[in-house]
C-alpha cells in the first residue's frame, strides 16, 4: 500500500541567501554559525531558472510558480504559506504549516548547544508505524528538519515535503513537469517480524 509520496524537485540555479551577497544576510547562530530558520525570505532574491513550477534553491528552499500556487488554492490546500518574492514576480517561497508526519533520520550528529540544531541530519525515512492508511489529499511535512551543512552552499535545515496519493494524481493530471515522487510504501503483511536495530 502506498501511503504517500516524498516530493522532490529540480534545482532552479538560485540561492535564497548567498554568502557572496553583501546586501542581505540570513540569521545565523552566533555559536555554530549556521542558519537558524529556513522560512526566512530574502526580499532581494531573484530566481534564475524560471521554467519550473516547483523547484528548490541550492540552499534547499522550496519555490512555487504562480501556476502551482493557483493549483493549490483551487484544491483548497490551506496549510501552505506562499511568500511573495518581490524581485521574482510570479514566484513564491513555499512554506508548509503544521500537517507533520513522523520521520526518522539515518544519521544525526553535531548538536549545537546554542541553537539546538544538529549540523547533520540526513537520510529521511518515514516512520510507518503510526501510519495505517494512505494520507488524505494534501501536503504534509516531516516532523524533523534535514540537511548536511557546512558544504558548498550555506543551507538551513529544511523539512521533507510529502503529498498524498490523490494529490500526486492531481499534480500529474495538470501536467506539472520535473517533479519527482518517491513512493512511501507500507507492507500489509502482518506476519512479518519487525527487524531489530
Ligand atoms: Zn548553533
TrEMBL record:
This is Uncharacterized protein. It comes from Rufibacter tibetensis.
Amino acid at each position: 500500500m502506498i501511503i504517500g509520496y516524498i516530493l522532490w524537485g529540480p534545482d532552479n540555479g538560485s540561492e535564497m541567501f548567498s554568502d557572496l551577497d553583501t546586501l542581505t544576510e540570513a540569521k545565523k547562530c552566533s555559536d555554530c554559525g549556521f542558519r537558524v530558520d529556513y522560512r526566512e525570505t530574502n526580499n532581494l532574491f531573484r530566481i534564475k531558472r524560471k521554467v519550473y513550477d516547483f523547484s528548490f534553491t541550492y540552499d534547499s528552499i522550496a519555490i512555487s510558480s504562480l501556476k502551482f500556487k493557483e493549483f493549490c488554492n483551487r484544491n483548497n490546500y490551506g496549510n501552505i504559506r506562499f511568500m511573495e518574492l518581490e524581485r521574482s514576480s510570479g514566484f513564491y517561497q513555499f512554506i508548509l504549516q503544521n500537517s507533520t508526519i513522523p520521520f526518522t533520520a539515518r544519521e544525526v550528529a553535531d548538536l549545537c548547544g546554542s541553537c539546538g540544531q544538529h549540523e547533520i541530519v540526513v537520510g529521511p525515512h518515514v516512520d510507518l508505524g503510526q501510519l495505517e492508511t494512505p494520507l488524505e489529499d494534501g501536503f504534509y511535512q516531516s516532523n524533523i528538519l534535514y540537511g548536511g551543512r557546512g558544504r558548498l552552499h550555506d543551507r538551513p535545515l529544511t523539512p521533507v515535503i510529502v503529498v498524498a496519493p490523490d494529490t500526486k494524481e492531481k499534480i500529474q493530471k495538470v501536467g506539472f513537469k520535473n517533479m519527482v515522487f518517491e513512493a512511501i510504501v507500507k507492507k500489509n503483511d502482518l506476519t512479518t517480524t519487525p527487524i531489530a536495530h
